[in-house]
Structures are given as structure tokens and as C-alpha cells.
Amino acid sequence: MGVRFDIRSCSAAEMVLLGIFALGLLVASSVVSFRNKIRLSEPMELKLAGVSVSLPAGGGWQHWDQWKYNKTEDVNALSGHLLVGSKVGAIVQWRFMGVSDSLMPEDRLSIRAGTDEVKIVKAGQIQADVPMDWVQARLRGRLKDVFLGTARVGHGAVVELEVVTFDDAELAERIFRAVAVSLKLVQPDWSQRPTVSRLRRLGLFSKNDVDYEALNG
Q1: Is the dihedral of CA 173, 81, 85, 31 positive or negative?
Q2: At a CB cut-off of 8 Å and minimum separation 6, what does 96 contact?
């Protein structure tokens, strides 16, 4: 015979204790949910390119405040990283390429990985304001979990999102999916039109600029 619980037999003090216990469970659940949620920064626009994105913020995340253009490498990038103690636990980077012959993330990943052996785990597409094709991979020998996505944003331009973690594919995927949907198309600001040569260079990308070695601590 099962034990039956009759709430009517509880004293006022017992009811208060039950209420406190239930409230404690609710608070604990909220804290776990809060910690698991990837909070994002305010949108950061790449002027003239017509795109806006966000990066993870708070909870150990540090990120650049604006897009940076590297004249030597011809790249516009926006980067952030997660500090776990004294080590880097995750790296997130957006890249804007004004012209790209290779759009598929598998091809881009091979370029990004360099000489590292790449094992593709799965692939798919995120349906958001700007659809993004993506792949999940592991860089063998270094235990790096990588998510890389590419999205066409018009006029031959490609936006690329890369998330790298150290042996934590679940975290990499949560970060990637949360950040990927922040990609938006916006009206370019033509009030400060650059030279023609600068427009031609805008967003071209050719070299690795994510520091994979940082993940080794």
C-alpha cells in the first residue's frame, strides 16, 4: 500500500517550510538556467558592410568593442574569448570577407585548420534572419572542438562565424547557436564613404587569425 500525503494534516509551520523548500528549488533552477544561457552583447555594426552581429558577454567573457581591420592581412574581424581561471576556455570570432570564392563551411574550415587533421562530426543550416550553413569538427591531436558557419550577405560578401573550445563540444554548440542568430542585415552608413581602394579591400580574408594556441593555456 502506498503512503498518502494529506496536506490538510500539515501545521502552519510545516506549510511554511514546504513553501520555503519549493522556493529554494525554483531559485536553484533559475540559477542553473541563467548560467547555461549565453548572454549577448549589444549589436556591433560593421559600417559600410551592412551587417550587425553580437558576441557573448558577461560571466567571464571578454570581447572587442568594435570590428577591427588589419591592413596587413586584409581582414575585418570581431573577436571574444571566455576566461576560465587563468586559461582561455572558448574563442568566438566573426569575420567579414568582401569576396570569397569558397562559401561552403567545410572548405573554409580546411583553410582555417591549416595543417591540423580535421574530422567532420556533423553539418546543418541555421534558419534565422540570415541563413547560415555550418559544420562541427574536431581538430585531431589537439582536442579542439570547432563550429564554423558561413552566410552569404550579398554582392559576393560572406560572413563567417567560428567557435572553438577545448574538448567541450556541448559548450561550443551552445555558444555557436546563440551567437549565430545575432547576424542581421542593416542599412550601410554611407555618411563616411571611403576611397574606392578601401571599398575593394573591405573584408577580404586570407590568413588564420584565431589563436588556437591560446586554448592550450
Answers
A1: negative
A2: 46, 49, 51, 67, 76, 77, 157, 158, 159, 160, 202, 203, 205
Q: What is the pTM of this model?
A: 0.71
C-alpha cell recorded at residue 2: 502506498
Q: How many CB atoms lie within 10 A of CB 120?
A: 14
Helices of type H across the chain? 12-36, 105-113, 169-180, 196-201
User: 95 is written with which cell numbers?
Assistant: 569575420
Residues 66-88: tens digit of each pLDDT: 999 877 766 799 999 999 888 89
Whether 138 contacts 119, CB under 8 Å: yes
CA distances from 25 to 28, 116, 126, 129 (A): 5, 46, 34, 37
φ, ψ of residue 26 in degrees (nearest 5): -65, -45
All cell numbers assigned to 10: 500539515
Gyration radius of the chain's alpha carbons: 23
Residue 14: the pLDDT is 56
C-alpha–C-alpha distance, residues 61 and 40, integer Å: 10
Contacts of 71 by beta carbon, 8 Å cutoff, 6+ apart: 201
